[in-house]
Amino acid sequence: xxxxxxxxxxxxxxxxxxxxxxxxxxxxxxxxxxxxxxxxxxxxxxxxxxxxxxxxxxxxxxxxxxxxxxxxxxxxxxxxxxxxxxxxxxxxxxxxxxxxxxxxxxxxxxxxxxxxxxxxxxxxxxxxxxxxxxxxxxxxxxxxxxxxxxxxxxxxxxxxxxxxxxxxxxxxxxxxxxxxxxxx
Length: 184
Description:
CATH architecture: 3-Layer(aba) Sandwich
Strand content: 15-25%
CATH class: Alpha Beta
CATH topology: Rossmann fold
Helix content: 25-40%
């Protein structure tokens, strides 16, 4: 399994890096991708993180999932990236996994990907989940879409990704390894 986690200036560090950490611990190949054309991307709390790749260098056909971390400015940067949005639309249409947390599920809502699905996001962005049944759970999976509520739910979100890409047992074992009791 291989996923891309996409970073734009102002991303929420905990949401992005928790997914990277948990998925790598589970043996999933994770590529951290800059959509800003910079080798490192500064998050919403001024943490500068070095990326594995630039958007233009990503082999999207080799990825099994696209992950969009939140943070208001980071979410705006991701949504403004036409190349990423084209790939997101293609993944969704092909039934491949798409995942977003905090403010980023608003992108999925704007693109019509949440109609008739259960979804969750940061409370002030719930109005952007167009057509979704908003659950307010820490993390939610419906069809090929995974959403997470916010920074405090990043571990649940990451574990749900592991569960869907590998197995429930793998997610349970990983939760035990990192001494975490799952909320969802």
